[in-house]
Amino acid sequence: MASAAEQLAANVNLSAFGKSDELKKRIWFTLGALIVYRLGTYVPLPGIDPDAFAKSFFGQSKGMLELFNMFAGGAVQRRAIFALNIMPYISASIIIQLLTSVFPSLESIKKEGEQGRKVLNQYTRYLTVVLATFQAYAMAIGLEGQAGVVTEPGLFFRITTVVTLVAGTMFLMWLGEQITSRGIGNGSSLIIFAGIVAAFPSAIVSTLELGRQGAISTGLILSVITMSFFVIAFIVFMERAQRRLLITYPKRQHGNRVYEGQTSFLPLKLNTAGVIPPIFASSLLLLPTTVANFYQSTGSDSIFATISAYFGHGRPLYMLAYVGLIVFFAFFYTAIVFNPTETADNLKKHGGFIPGIRPGERTASYIDSVLMHVTVLGALYLAIICLLPEGLIAYANLPFYFGGTSLLIVVSVTMDTVAQIHGHMQAQQYEGLIRKTKLKGRRK
Predict the structure, then answer these.
(1) Residue 411 to residues 256, 336, 369: CA-CA distances in angstroms?
(2) Mean per-residue pLDDT pooled into runs of 10, the chain (444 residues)
(3) Which pairs with CB-CB distance under 8 Å and at least 24 residues apart come from 171-176?
(4) What CA–CA distance (Å, rounded) separates 174 from 389?
């Protein structure tokens, strides 16, 4: 089965692309929005000494702070207004989805359709402000605790920092929603994707510089490059893998005509949750450990030092929590996006059934069982992809940008965006065929 990229290369020509004005507008809008985001990562926070902060950052950057900097597109390193990035919004989405499955009142709102979705989105925005305010205040306290970083510590610096960082996060949330509705691809994923991709060149240069200085061997660099290609190929293969259930439609009569029975397939992706579990897991792990790292620098409480020590990047407890969260969110998000009971009811309404399985409740149980087994493999695949490179990074002290999470995000978002471009191109071609058919009908 050809991927979306292969179909796009085989079926789409440049002339058809040139005629698709809507697609070109969407692509240009997406590129413009991402450029605005990248420019914002270079706008610094007020009241910070850049030289003192640079020394402090590189002194702490061998842990969660560097991972945070990767998701923020380098904004943390540049003490920029987008330092929190869109992570508070992602964390708020996680919490709202969890609460929806726990509280019946929120679940009833979700079932109200478009209106319910708007209400939940509004709740997510409110919670984003709360989380961003908490993280921004913790960052302000942490910056004040680092000697010489803040030029004028005090209440005014804390207020301006909190307002600036929260406003930056809310702007990115709005920008992501605009990309999703008026551009190409998922806005939140593309913002994270742009930050990671923008840092790849500097990560490659720094790695080669370490090799030139003899800090790491040439063989290790070649091994990392080879591993990256294998990981990318493995991600592409697994993202396209699916379990197809045979669906049979019996003969049916419409008027005097009898239509033969048909067969089709119900595709169940191996990784139904996509890139969501690693992003969710990373965002939840970032919240306590980042605050702990900042408070540890002040020396105010030993408990923060303990949290930072046990949940440091590459530590066994961090790896265990990371795997556990990935597996949990793989099952949780799959349960949200795919409803076996609803699928079985739709099949029954249209006369379809799985051979050997009674329609209705039995079909729903069977689909749920198959989906459970498939999700086990998908969760295992995500855990392997995210852990193997992370272990190598922790062992060899390489940049975080070569990790499994970053590669998974880049490859998955690229495949999803290409698939959407392919869908728009096919729609454009279908519209062209419909216009030609109508013109021929009028001439006759």
Answers:
(1) 52, 23, 29
(2) 49 57 86 91 81 63 58 73 86 82 80 83 91 86 76 86 92 91 86 84 77 77 80 86 85 62 82 82 68 55 61 73 88 84 83 83 89 91 80 62 72 84 72 60 57
(3) 171/40, 172/37, 172/40, 172/82, 172/85, 172/86, 172/89, 173/86, 173/89, 173/125, 173/128, 175/33, 175/36, 175/37, 176/86, 176/89
(4) 33
DSSP H helices, 61-186, are: 64-71, 87-102, 104-110, 114-145, 155-182
Q: Which domains does the chain have, with CATH numbers?
A: 4-8+22-443 (1.10.3370.10)
CB neighbours of 260 closer than 8 A, spacing ≥ 6? 251
Mention every residue, 6+ apart, whose C-beta is less than 8 A from residue 181: none
Report field, pTM of the whole predicted structure over 0.90: no
Task: Report d(CA 263, CA 347) in Å as an integer.
Answer: 12
